[in-house]
Amino acid sequence: MDIDLIALLMLVAFCAGTIDAMAGGGGLITIPALLAAGVPPVMALGTNKLQSAFGTAGATFAFWRKGHIDLRRSWRLALASFGGAAVGAALVQAIDPQFLAGLLPVLLVAMALYFLFGPRLSDVDTHTRLAPAGLLLAVAAIGTYDGFFGPGTGSFFTLLLVTAAGMGATRAVGHTKLLNLASNLAGVIVLVAGGHVWWVLGLSMAVASVAGGQLGAALAIRFGGRAIRPLLVVVSLALTVKLVADPANPLRVWLGI
């Protein structure tokens, strides 16, 4: 691949890493860019998982360093996310994920409406509304979804942690990075084992993704819910538009579009 194209993809990874650290949805930017650059679809997914894992790891460390991640409270959740993603990556090889492509836009719109019209996001923790076992199962389910399909995983984790775990906005996003890191690692392991990673490109983009993740984490910590809430709405709606714009999306068939 031409060095100029690699440099452009690194810039894309930096921007995606910044947005992803604040509200998720970085793959909305990087995967189309990789496909447009001529990377085969499965190779694009594997390469994106690799660079995203590095960026998410950097953002996770930044949130942890500032005290926004409680590892003693969340390591079990991370394991549940990892295990769920491994199961999802295995399931996707046996089950057609197209039905999720039709359901997901509806869920994303509902999520955007919640963040837009629901209670104001604050950085103050509230009481937990879900028992620990239930929270573990919910995290494992989202992790399974990430390994199986993927778009919107970060937003789903954040919504769960705010509404069910009672976390403030910044802590919820910080713990989302940890859970996303766990699910990304499971995906990377599966895709590396299958030989679906372009190492030179993935590692080059990873450098930029780490830098973007640091910037995004700093902005999220600095501005808290004021910045996170509108970004969550924008990312959810952007993912919806992207999915519905696909002529193969089952929702278009169901609605006769």
Could you describe the 3D structure shown?
This protein is mainly α and 257 residues long. The protein has one domain. The chain contains eleven helices and no strands. The longest helix has 25 residues.
Mean pLDDT: 83
- Portion of residues in beta strands equals under 5%
Quantity of strands, as a count: 0
Q: What Rg do the Cα atoms give?
A: 17 Å
Q: What count of helical segments does DSSP give? A: 11
By secondary-structure content and strand pairing, the structural class works out as mainly alpha
Relative helix content? over 70%
The main β sheet shows up as: none
In the predicted model, the low-confidence regions spanning at least 5 consecutive residues are none
How many structurally independent domains?
Answer: 1
Give the SSE order as H and E letters: HHHHHHHHHHH
What is the approximate shape? globular
Tell me the span between the first and last alpha carbons.
Answer: 38 Å
Summarize the topology.
Elements: H1 3-23, H2 27-36, H3 41-65, H4 71-91, H5 98-117, H6 132-148, H7 153-163, H8 169-193, H9 199-223, H10 225-245, H11 250-255
Helix pairs in contact: 1-2, 1-3, 1-9, 2-3, 3-8, 3-9, 4-6, 4-8, 5-10, 6-7, 6-8, 7-8
Short description:
This protein is mostly helical. The protein has helices at 3-23, 27-36, 41-65, 71-91, 98-117, 132-148, 153-163, 169-193, 199-223, 225-245, 250-255.
